């Protein structure tokens, strides 16, 4: 590894599509009985980590299967590395490294054997890189895979995915159930890819990990992106606001634009909001409300933002923020019972 | 203590788990039964009998097949999906789990037997050929299936994977037979074991084996469900120090880079080496057993019991069949196990390449093993298992080349469609039986052409190739199932296409003609009871035509062979006269019954008799001319009566015979001095009846209508003509005119005959002077003879004839070489009409002709 | 030097890196002319996106604390020390302001607050070693 500072390419998500590693436009996938994806737009460039967050069943795995050609979309199109997954799925899979949460490996092969076997499908150099990685991860080469622990299996799967130097690494909840050391290995490998200018698409539940490594984040809920954008900007923009009132029953006026309320909780004299886009003026207007004794704001972390996006949509939040023209990255309040 | 609800639920779970296996086997059996039913449409054919016997064996084997699969499905699969571990974590006693599983299996086995026994009875109605399994007795088979069930469960508990337990079941299933055989060889036990009571095929002895199996499965089940022993950790797991001490690549030589193809071949071979080795072993064992049969039959070497030798072909057949099918199953199920195929799919390995790599190992292995097996068979000189079935080259190719290939292909197709290995291992062989029997049905009965059959043979290969990308990606959507179902329909539908085309496109009898024929008045001809004129001296009985063989050649009854003539000239003359009197008496006594075609011998005798008499009349040196005259006149009288009585028959064969007789009579009447020779009145009557066009036409129409009606009903003969001798000049199917008849041939022959009847009816209805050449040409073409029209002219001197031998009548069926109705609307009828007109014009003069002495002219 | 990053404490990660570098320079852990670890190495060590680290380094470069040398990497600028000292002081004064605002908000009078401050100072005098490696492990929150 060189010690020179490597120049990093453009990290924002609004980049011209020609350079995009992944480009998805209005993707819809519907199964009989359920709509897995309902119109998803996405751009992932090289040299960045894009994280997909969502509950179980939100559609993350379906999206990834569309990218690798395992799933046919009902409508919309997507491009991976400039190729169409419907036609060139094999070519895509050869150039992409994919690690799933239960990787399929041949249990009867040894660690070295499986690398040697997989080397037959890639170009020269695979086996040396694989053995380097496996040695780096300290997985014994002569042991059969069925005798490996869960973390070692995941490392072998990761090594197999990285050994052919793919331009895009797709990780679908790879570290679920693994110990922190193995998770750390995964993170380091991921970041190493980014540092060399490759792209990584990470789908995960480990929000703390995502906060560390992601450039851009998208939260998938019920088949749509509730929020997507650069992580730092999102975090800077989102705040948790605690309002203390004299009168527990007094209602608060809606926050002035461009503030958008993502979630709301109230108990006794206190109200808790997760708000996006609350500026100084907005905070000041809140403080100046009659009956409001104290207003505390702090930046929300990703977990709170995630919970707000996913749970907050069940509430009727019309009365809490001024109506705005809807855009794809704003929360669409759903009809539901008002939480007191 | 287990409370009732949880026990019920455990029961429900076990039964539900066995359901796919329990349903698929009877379903395939019913499909097979359908094929058997279709083959027995041709009643009394030998293929139907063989197939029915075979099917009966299959019915008895159906519960055994379930027993074979039980262990893997109920226990082996649970081990692999780790649900057994979950079951152990529930508050259930291990004993409960073991016996509930076994009881569920036994319950379904009983249900299978309830289905199998009636099915086998249905099949046994058609099964007359003796097969080795027919005479073992039902009780033996029931106990044998129980034995396999229990020992299969025991092995499933013992072995680690379901596939290994299935392979291990094969030797375990034949252990009872072999132990008994070897016990007989061993001196101390020989006398004891020779006693038939200890025969393992006896229910009692087999029950003992069942008890042993029960004990084994109990013990191994308890061990499996109990605590894991300390020593049973990760067997063979080296310590960390051991890891670094054995650099694996140096040891195994893996450091060389490989191509994708080589990698895939290595992976398939190494992963499935147990199955490949097991199948090879089974085929090699079968070859060895064939040699054992050869030695045993030859009487040399060890003295195997006759029952052993008899049972061996079954065993060999089962081994060979299972090995071939399991080689096909492993092609896809080797990867479907635990979703291993996802490894290759995730990495974008080409599905086509994967498909090739799988078959590239299994198929050559199968070929080599079959060569070995075929070689063993070829070295068997004594036919012990019905090797004589391969009479002609076609059948040999079918049985020893196409059948194993089809079994392999059908199994690999089944393995792609089904999800679990055990189910595929059981259903695969059954599906292969279905495929092979359907191909046989298509070849022999549907008479599909060879090209179509080859396409169907290779169809499973094409289907799996096309479905491979979707299968590898596990994308079981419309595209994948469309391919599978489409292939299934093609496989069963393609061979039926020629039959359908024949059925749809061959023209048959027209509705108009049918309507006209059905309206034709048939009164007076309802009961056809012909009489045969016998030349011997035995009483005549009125007989009804019963079978095809009676139409030709043989007389209707048994009679003593005529004695060779030993008499002198005077006596011979008297003998002839006596015969003529006897014939006249028979004719008198039989009223107006029509004369049967088998009376041709009598007719020939009378014709010769008349000719001889006529020649001696015109001989000036003859002394007793008056006697000869009388004889001639008697003969002519009899012959004209016979001709008229034949006209009354409803069969076309008698109409044709009557035609020929009347042609002869006409020739006689055209002789010089015929009028004087025959006698005026008689001559007038005879000539009038010869010229009676109308009644002849009516008789013919009646004959056509009745012949078609009786053919429609009984399909045995057409108007007295053997329908198998109908001149169908095209052969169908790869075995030509198959002995079974074939559905396509049947359809076509009936249609062609119907088309011929159109022409016959038109011919019978036609005007005397109309041009009937087209009809005659078509009839002759359908009959397979060449039409000859020479002589058909306005000049009445010529008759129409095809074959000179017609008039010599050396063999009765030589004149059958002419087409049916070949003398209808012919020149002789016109000549007869002319003669009749001339005769009626001279009626007055005839009355004056009395007894004339013709020789004096 | 060792960094310690807490992604969920409210401060942006790159900002945490910036502050820790400044504090390290101010304390003397990082001497002028010392080479900083590479972005790649640092991202692997901290398990943080290299783009974030790059942004932090860019900002430090813009402020004149770090210097980019071709062929060598990023080094601490010679004139970095006073800048960092000033930055540290500013940060401490902000923290102090936050504490004092909280005290006033709680209802204490200025005099009481001043008493508390002097009392604490008196208690700590002479007991706190100077130039100690006191990394920002406690959450530096904007709001209390």
Strand and helix map with partners:
The complex is a heterotrimer of chains A (340), B (857) and C (144).
Chain A: E1 22-31, E2 34-44, E3 49-54, H1 60-67, E4 75-80, H2 89-95, E5 96-99, H3 111-119, H4 126-137, H5 150-162, E6 168-172, H6 180-195, E7 199-203, H7 207-213, E8 216-221, E9 224-230, H8 231-237, E10 238-245, E11 260-267, E12 270-276, H9 280-287, E13 292-299, H10 302-311
Parallel strand pairs in A: 3-7, 3-8, 5-6, 6-7
Antiparallel strand pairs in A: 1-2, 1-4, 8-9, 10-12, 10-13, 11-12
Helix pairs in contact in A: 3-4, 4-5
Chain B: H1 4-39, H2 46-80, H3 83-89, H4 94-124, H5 138-158, H6 162-185, H7 187-194, H8 203-225, H9 240-245, H10 248-252, H11 260-271, H12 273-298, H13 306-336, H14 341-346, H15 351-378, H16 393-417, H17 421-444, H18 450-472, H19 478-493, H20 497-505, H21 511-519, H22 569-589, H23 600-617, H24 625-647, H25 652-669, H26 674-678, H27 680-690, H28 693-714, E1 717-718, E2 721-722, H29 743-765, H30 773-783, H31 805-808, H32 827-841, H33 843-848
Antiparallel strand pairs in B: 1-2
Chain C: H1 13-27, H2 39-46, H3 50-62, E1 66-69, E2 73-76, H4 80-105, H5 110-124
Antiparallel strand pairs in C: 1-2
Q: Quick recap of the structure?
A:
Chain A is an alpha/beta fold and 340 residues long.
Outline the structure in words.
- The complex is a heterotrimer of chains A (340), B (857) and C (144).
- With 340 residues, chain A is α/β, with parallel strands linked by helices.
- Among the domains of chain A are: 154 residues, P-loop containing nucleotide triphosphate hydrolases (Rossmann fold); 83 residues, 2-Layer Sandwich (Alpha-Beta Plaits), CATH 3.30.70.
- Chain A is built from ten helices and 13 strands.
- A six-stranded mixed beta sheet of chain A has the order 5-6-7-3-8-9, with helices on both faces.
- The N terminus and C terminus of chain A are likely disordered.
- Among the domains of chain B are: 228 residues, no CATH class; 277 residues, no CATH class.
- Chain B is built from 33 helices and two strands.
- A two-stranded antiparallel ribbon of chain B has the order 1-2.
- The C terminus of chain B is likely disordered.
- By secondary structure, chain C is mainly alpha-helical.
- Chain C has a single domain, classed as Orthogonal Bundle (Arc Repressor Mutant, subunit A).
- Chain C has five helices and two strands, in the order αααββαα.
- A two-stranded antiparallel ribbon of chain C has the order 1-2.
- Chain C is elongated.
- The chains are: A alpha/beta (340), B mainly alpha (857), C mainly alpha (144).
- Chains in contact: A-B, A-C.
- At the A-B interface, helix 2 and helix 3 of A face helix 9, helix 10, helix 11 and helix 14 of B.
């Amino acid at each position: 590894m060189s010690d020179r500072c490597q120049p990093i390419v453009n990290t924002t998500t609004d980049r011209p599509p020609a350079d995009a590693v992944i480009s998805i436009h209005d993707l819809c996938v519907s199964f009989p009985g359920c709509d897995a994806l309902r119109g998803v737009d996405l751009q992932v460039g090289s040299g960045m980590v894009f994280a997909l967050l969502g509950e179980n069943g939100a559609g993350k795995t379906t999206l990834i299967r569309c990218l690798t050609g395992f799933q046919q979309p009902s409508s919309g199109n997507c491009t991976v590395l400039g190729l169409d997954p419907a036609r060139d799925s094999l070519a895509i899979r050869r150039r992409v490294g994919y690690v799933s949460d239960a990787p399929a490996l041949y249990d009867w092969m040894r660690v070295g054997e499986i690398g040697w076997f997989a080397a037959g499908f890639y170009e020269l150099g695979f086996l040396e890189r694989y053995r380097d990685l496996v040695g780096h991860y300290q997985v014994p080469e002569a042991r059969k895979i069925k005798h490996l622990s869960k973390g070692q299996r995941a490392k072998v799967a990761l090594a197999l995915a990285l050994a052919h130097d793919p331009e895009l690494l797709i990780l679908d909840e790879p570290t679920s159930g693994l110990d922190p050391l193995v998770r750390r290995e995964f993170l380091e490998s991921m970041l190493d890819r980014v540092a060399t200018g490759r792209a990584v698409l990470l789908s995960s539940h480990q929000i703390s990990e995502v906060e560390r490594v992601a450039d851009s984040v998208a939260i998938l809920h019920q088949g749509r992106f509730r929020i997507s954008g650069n992580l730092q900007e999102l975090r800077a923009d989102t705040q948790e606001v605690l309002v203390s009132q004299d009168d527990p029953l007094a209602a608060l006026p809606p926050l002035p634009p461009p503030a958008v309320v993502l979630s709301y909780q109230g108990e006794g004299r206190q109200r808790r909001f997760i708000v996006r886009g609350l500026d100084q003026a907005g905070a000041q207007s809140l403080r100046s409300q009659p009956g409001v004794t104290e207003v505390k704001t702090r930046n929300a972390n990703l977990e709170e933002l995630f919970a707000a996006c996913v749970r907050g949509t069940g509430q009727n939040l019309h009365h809490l923020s001024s109506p705005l023209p809807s855009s794809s990255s704003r929360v669409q309040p759903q009809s539901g019972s008002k939480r007191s | 203590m287990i409370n009732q609800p949880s026990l019920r639920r455990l029961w429900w779970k076990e039964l539900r788990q066995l359901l796919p296996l329990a349903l698929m086997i009877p379903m395939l059996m019913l499909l097979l039964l359908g094929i058997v039913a279709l083959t027995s449409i041709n009643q009394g054919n030998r293929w139907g009998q063989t197939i029915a016997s075979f099917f009966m064996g299959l019915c008895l084997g159906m519960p055994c097949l379930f027993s074979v699969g039980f262990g893997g499905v109920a226990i082996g699969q649970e081990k692999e999906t780790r649900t057994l571990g979950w079951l152990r974590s529930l508050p259930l006693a291990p004993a409960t789990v073991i016996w509930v599983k076994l009881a569920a299996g036994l319950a379904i086995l009983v249900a299978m037997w309830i289905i199998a026994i009636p099915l086998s009875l249905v099949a046994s109605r058609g099964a007359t050929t003796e097969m080795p399994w027919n005479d073992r007795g039902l009780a033996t088979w029931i106990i044998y299936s129980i034995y396999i069930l229990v020992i299969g469960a025991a092995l499933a508990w013992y072995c680690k994977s379901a596939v290994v337990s299935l392979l291990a079941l094969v030797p375990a299933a034949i252990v009872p037979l072999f132990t008994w055989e070897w016990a007989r060889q061993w001196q101390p036990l020989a006398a004891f074991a020779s006693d038939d009571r200890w025969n393992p095929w006896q229910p009692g002895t087999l029950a003992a084996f069942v008890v042993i199996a029960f004990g084994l499965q109990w013990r191994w089940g308890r061990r499996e469900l109990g605590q894991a022993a300390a020593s049973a950790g990760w067997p063979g797991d080296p310590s960390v120090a051991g890891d670094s001490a054995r650099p694996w690549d140096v040891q195994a030589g893996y450091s060389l880079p490989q191509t994708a193809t080589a990698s895939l071949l290595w992976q398939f071979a190494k992963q499935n080496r147990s199955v490949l080795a097991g199948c090879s072993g089974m085929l090699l064992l079968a070859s060895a057993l064939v040699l054992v049969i050869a030695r045993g039959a030859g009487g040399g070497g060890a003295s195997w019991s006759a029952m052993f030798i008899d049972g061996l072909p079954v065993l060999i057949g089962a081994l060979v069949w299972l090995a071939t099918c399991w080689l096909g199953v492993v092609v896809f199920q080797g990867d479907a196990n635990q979703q291993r195929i996802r490894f290759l799919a995730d990495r974008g390995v080409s599905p086509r390449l994967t498909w090739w790599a799988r078959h590239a190992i299994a198929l050559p292995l199968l070929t080599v093993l079959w060569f070995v097996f075929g070689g063993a068979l070829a070295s068997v000189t004594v036919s012990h298992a019905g090797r004589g079935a391969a009479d002609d080259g076609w059948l040999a190719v079918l049985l020893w080349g196409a059948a194993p290939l089809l079994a392999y292909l059908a199994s690999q197709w089944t393995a792609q469609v089904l999800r679990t290995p055990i189910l595929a291992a059981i259903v695969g062989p059954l599906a292969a039986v279905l495929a092979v029997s359907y191909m046989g049905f298509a070849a022999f009965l549907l008479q599909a052409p060879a090209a179509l059959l080859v396409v169907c043979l290779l169809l499973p290969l094409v289907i799996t190739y096309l479905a491979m990308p979707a299968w590898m990606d596990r994308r079981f959507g419309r595209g994948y199932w469309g391919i599978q179902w489409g292939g299934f329909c093609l496989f069963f539908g393609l061979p039926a296409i020629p039959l359908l085309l024949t059925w749809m496109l061959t023209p048959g009898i027209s509705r108009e003609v049918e309507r006209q024929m059905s309206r034709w008045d048939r009164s007076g001809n309802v009961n056809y009871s012909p009489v045969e004129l016998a030349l011997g001296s035995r009483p005549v009985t009125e007989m009804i035509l019963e079978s095809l063989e009676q139409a030709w050649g043989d007389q209707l009854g048994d009679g003593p062979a005529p004695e060779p003539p030993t008499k002198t000239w005077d006596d011979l003359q008297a003998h002839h006269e006596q015969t003529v009197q006897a014939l006249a008496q028979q004719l008198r006594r039989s009223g107006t019954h029509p004369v049967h075609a088998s009376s041709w011998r009598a007719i020939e005798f009378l014709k010769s008799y008349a000719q001889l008499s006529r020649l001696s009349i015109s001989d000036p040196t003859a002394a007793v001319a008056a006697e000869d005259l009388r004889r001639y006149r008697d003969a002519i009288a009899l012959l004209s009566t016979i001709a008229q009585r034949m006209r009354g028959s409803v069969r076309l064969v008698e109409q044709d015979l009557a035609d020929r007789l009347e042609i002869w009579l006409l020739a006689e009447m055209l002789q010089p001095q015929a009028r004087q020779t025959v006698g005026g009145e008689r001559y007038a009557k005879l000539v009038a009846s010869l010229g009676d066009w109308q009644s002849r036409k009516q008789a013919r129409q009646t004959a056509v209508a009745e012949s078609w009606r009786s053919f429609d009903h009984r399909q045995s003969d057409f108007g007295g003509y053997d329908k198998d001798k109908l001149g169908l000049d095209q052969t169908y199917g790869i075995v030509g005119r198959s002995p079974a008849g074939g559905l396509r041939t049947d359809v076509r022959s009936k249609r062609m005959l119907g088309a011929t009847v159109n022409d016959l009816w038109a011919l019978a209805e036609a005007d005397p002077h109309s041009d009937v050449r087209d009809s005659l040409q078509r009839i002759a073409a359908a009959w397979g003879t060449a039409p000859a029209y020479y002589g058909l002219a306005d000049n009445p001197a010529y008759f129409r004839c095809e074959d000179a031998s017609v008039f010599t009548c050396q063999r009765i069926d030589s004149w059958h070489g002419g087409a049916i109705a070949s003398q209808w609307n012919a020149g002789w009828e016109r000549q007869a009409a002319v003669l009749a007109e001339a005769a009626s014009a001279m009626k007055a003069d005839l009355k004056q002709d009395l007894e004339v002495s013709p020789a004096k002219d | 030097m060792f960094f310690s990053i807490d992604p969920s404490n409210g401060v942006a990660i790159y900002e945490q890196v910036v502050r820790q570098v400044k504090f390290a320079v101010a304390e003397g852990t990082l001497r002028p002319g010392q080479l900083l670890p590479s972005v790649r190495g640092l991202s692997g060590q901290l398990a943080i996106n290299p783009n974030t680290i790059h942004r932090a380094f860019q900002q430090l470069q813009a402020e004149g604390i770090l210097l980019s040398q071709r062929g060598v990497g990023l080094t601490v600028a010679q004139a970095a020390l006073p800048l960092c000292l000033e930055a540290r002081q500013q940060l401490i004064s902000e923290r102090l302001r936050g504490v004092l605002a909280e005290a006033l908000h709680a209802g204490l009078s200025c005099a009481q607050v001043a008493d508390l401050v002097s009392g604490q100072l008196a208690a700590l005098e002479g007991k706190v070693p100077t130039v100690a490696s006191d990394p920002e492990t406690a959450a530096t929150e904007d709001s209390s």
